[in-house]
Design brief:
- 73% of the residues lie in helices and 0% in strands.
- By secondary structure, it is an all-alpha fold.
- The protein is elongated.
């Protein structure tokens, strides 16, 4: 049985722990209510703290949202890099591992996805959000594109363009995430991965038999 922290323990939380507690609460609120409808009061209530504590650590809703987006992006980046490092040495192995990672529960999670899509929907209006999301997309596209280029050279796939394959894989991932977010009961992770693998096999037949 998990140990529930006492009130005195919660009062002595470090600055970093308190900020993370508020960010976690913000994620839950955004997933439930969206960005526009989430207030500092909602976050405080979700975290079991006073609104004054929220103001003390973040000063404004804008700062809290910026750091929440940064946290979500860093969480994805950490899993992305860990997966890349743990995968085999071959480009095909690494590419497949990254595609599988995007469909694992640690990434393909309805709460996280709801927050991602909420921020993506605001990037045109909030430069800070666009900067964070563009940085994430840039790293993702660069790694996937480089892996595709290596596979194309290895298999002499003359009619395949790395940029096109990268865009297709990203679009598939985004589409599958959205499908899970909208219709979780109808979503099947194995079937989703089969769809991704079928594409890889069609484009790179000698690498994905």
């Amino acid at each position: 049985m998990p140990v529930i922290a006492s009130k005195s323990t919660r009062r002595t939380a470090t600055k970093e722990e308190r900020r993370q507690q508020l960010i976690d609460a913000t994620v839950k609120c955004i997933a439930r209510k969206g960005i526009g409808s989430t207030t500092l009061g909602d976050v405080a209530q979700e975290a079991g703290l006073s609104q004054g504590i929220v103001n003390l650590h973040f000063n404004s809703k804008e700062n809290l949202l910026n750091e929440t987006l940064q946290f979500i992006a860093e969480d994805y980046k950490a899993q992305f890099e860990a997966t890349l490092n743990k995968a085999g040495t071959e480009a095909a192995e690494k590419l497949l591992a990254l595609m599988e990672m995007d469909l694992k529960p640690s990434i393909c999670d309805r709460q996280k996805l709801a927050v991602w899509f909420a921020f993506w929907g605001e990037v045109k209006f909030v430069p800070t959000y666009q900067k964070v999301c563009d940085a994430y997309d840039s790293v993702y596209d660069s790694v996937i594109n480089n892996l595709c280029e290596t596979i194309i050279k290895e298999g002499n796939y003359r009619h395949v363009k790395a940029a096109t394959a990268t865009h297709a894989l990203q679009s598939m991932t985004d589409g599958l995430w959205l499908s899970y977010l909208v219709s979780p009961k109808a979503f099947d992770r194995d079937e989703a991965m089969d769809a991704v693998y079928s594409y890889l096999r069609a484009v790179f037949p000698d690498h994905y038999e």
